[in-house]
Amino acid sequence: MNPERPLDALNDARNKRVLLELKNGKQLIGTLKSFDIHINVVLYDTEEHVDGELKRKIGTAFVRGDTIILITPQ
Question: N or C: which end of the chain has fewer CB within 10 A?
Fold first, then answer.
């Protein structure tokens, strides 16, 4: 599918593994479960990575949209 709008791209990524890059330099990798129009997202089976290295497993995470720089499917 070729999404026409940004929220379409996120909807296509629902229930798939995604990588979030955050403003603080950390990366979160998890399964995208839901999001809203502010790009607040809920991830399941979330892992926190710093400089490409696994730091900790978080589990379920709510990430505020204004802290996200990039979201990409894995």
Answer: N
